[in-house]
Amino acid sequence: MRQGEIIAIGSELLLGGRLDTNSLFLTEQLASLGIEVRFKSVVGDRLAHIAQVVRTASRRADVVLLTGGLGPTQDDVTRQAVARVTARPLRRHLLALEGMRQRLAAWGRIPTTAQFRQALIPSGADVLPNPIGSAPGFALTWKKTLLVALPGVPVEAEQMFTTAVVPWLAAALGSERRPARPVRPDRIERRLLHTFGLPESEVEQRLQPFVRSQKSVRCGFLASPRGVTVSFLKVQGGATARSAKKDGTLDRLVRAARKQLGRHVYAEGAETMEQVVGRYLARWGLVLAVGESCTGGLIGHRLTEVPGSSAYLDRVAVCYSNRAKVELLGVPERLIQRHGAVSAEVAAAMARGIRIRSQAQVGLSVTGIAGPDGGTPQKPVGLVFVGLDAAGFGRGSRVGAGRVTREFRFHGPREAIKLRASQAALDMLRQWLERVR
Amino acid sequence: MRQGEIIAIGSELLLGGRLDTNSLFLTEQLASLGIEVRFKSVVGDRLAHIAQVVRTASRRADVVLLTGGLGPTQDDVTRQAVARVTARPLRRHLLALEGMRQRLAAWGRIPTTAQFRQALIPSGADVLPNPIGSAPGFALTWKKTLLVALPGVPVEAEQMFTTAVVPWLAAALGSERRPARPVRPDRIERRLLHTFGLPESEVEQRLQPFVRSQKSVRCGFLASPRGVTVSFLKVQGGATARSAKKDGTLDRLVRAARKQLGRHVYAEGAETMEQVVGRYLARWGLVLAVGESCTGGLIGHRLTEVPGSSAYLDRVAVCYSNRAKVELLGVPERLIQRHGAVSAEVAAAMARGIRIRSQAQVGLSVTGIAGPDGGTPQKPVGLVFVGLDAAGFGRGSRVGAGRVTREFRFHGPREAIKLRASQAALDMLRQWLERVR
Fold it and tell me: Hey, what domains does chain A have and what are their CATH numbers?
């Protein structure tokens, strides 16, 4: 199996203020091309440091992917670093220049002197056109290692990987004459199962017998406020036709795991909770309305990250004041006085209120204490109530009608409690949507 | 200046599905202790690979910080990897065992066999207690390099860094007898200026004269949907008293930069847009209500990430349907029919409607097309209108009264358009709050 290495360039990635989302995307893409990423490095904007990392990576990897440091500003020195390491002086590349000019012209802009620097490419390198931004990438072969440089902006890097890097890598790898390494990339198979509602140790315990019996599969567990994700990884080495074929091991394993974890599995692969919920709502033609309190709009935000969500989401009322709960959701003032805004009774009234006012089929609500202040011994920070109220639909309009309220106690800082509460509410909705068929 | 290196452990970090947020926090913390992080590595859950990275890092760094791989599951092998590299066999550590037992008992739980593995620590290492989770960390000195291992869960790693790692490092560094390196850490000074509304090249152009004249300061630019962030970094080398003192260079530079960038600067340092907006609202005792459409709750979510936001946020109405806009915000149906839901007129009516209905002093609204579908030649994807409607307050209730509507055209995928739109709306509010005094 070929070795790949990713180098993310940018002092901001080291010094905080920005998350490196590119590497994750690129690792997955390389894996699907049969290139295993064992190491990833992050390095600042210093020419000497970048050069050092590029040298180390080139020694141990077949493919080195650099992201970042191709912009127009003085701290963008990736092209200089690659030029120095490979001893290929920078030249103004006409194709890169022309592409940049056209792109800027389409935006009604004229390239500045600084932007012209972006057309400097190590001599002999191939230009990778950037269909979105102004900075082109480049790729070259150096001492049998393939070096690819992409901009740091995630949207640009992702698009360029598909449109330019994949064909370039295919051509470069295909043209090699190294019989010891198969031209056709080996297969890496990976499966993800996302669960909610079980602690990590419980998930592992339930899967132990299956995982142990499969020596060729590596199993990983990852806990986050979104739940526990189980990954199954199978790398098929060798170049024979037999080993390169999928043998169904992972399919069987995933089926067995799903059985063990039952209703706690909410999604597979890259699908998110909000996509699953949206898929069910769209399939059954249901409309949803949400009344949020402590989650502050996060449920609405997550639901609307999914394209086409306007088909099944009518409205979200974030009621941070009691008055808003009364006015927007029709929660009886007395109920709040008697039980407090954070109570099962108010959660139920919120879900019912938003459903009736919006004429949606399903109402979902969350009320709780996100902290760090506002907790009491009786109602501590992290106490959250989720409510669901369904009008019923289908034959005789009674299918799926009903009400559910659940109490949760979450730990952690404010952001984690908000995220856990939003996940709990969406998961309750997901389970209801699965049962209701 | 001392060299630090961070190693993030976990196949999930390489293979996607999770962002490594720890490293950013740790880099900043180490920098504030005078330890410069030049390189960061990410490596999967393989013992041999982890050992390789630990060896490389130990050769070039004074302090190596490992995060992740300390959990109870089979794929957690960080302690084994460190034991192998340093040739210190794992021993059950009584302090670690007891701490874990107490923590779990407080949650009403008994440690499982798998969790007992977490009390295994390389012999001679110091235990770093984990006040939140079950896995303790550990620290040891190996061939003059300080090796520190922390859990991968961000909340735990962050808290442990402050409570356990800082004192351990201080003691370890203080007890060294190496006169060539000063015991007292040198100072690293870093400033961040966050701007919105100017392209990256324009920001750099405006700052060029100041940046060029300061050879001792490194200036970096970072563009994201939140705007362009400028960082100023000054590393003071040497061990003399003079150089270790802050000389005010950065203060002067930041003042000059603020002048050049004017109203586009919305925050400094770690402060976020939502914190700035919240600070102003709280200071002037104003209450805000928001009517969102294409941002889907993201503005509410961002505002409520700030502790205490319930003091100034009354409600957020996310109106994904036209009917919701009419019912919750009182937008006249005719207005929507005449101008369309995505129009300056509707944005203005939304801001006014939510303000009046909620009796808040300030109403903020967003309507637009987040895409990828729903665009037309006249109203393309990325077209966004932001509205602001203020009742006026203060002397005679006329201070700050007024209405603003602005049109934006954003590019990029759905998530980026939502984020840019939320930032544009909050920035409009921020500028209004700054002017209104």
Answer: 2-174 (3.40.980.10), 188-268 (3.30.70.2860), 276-435 (3.90.950.20)
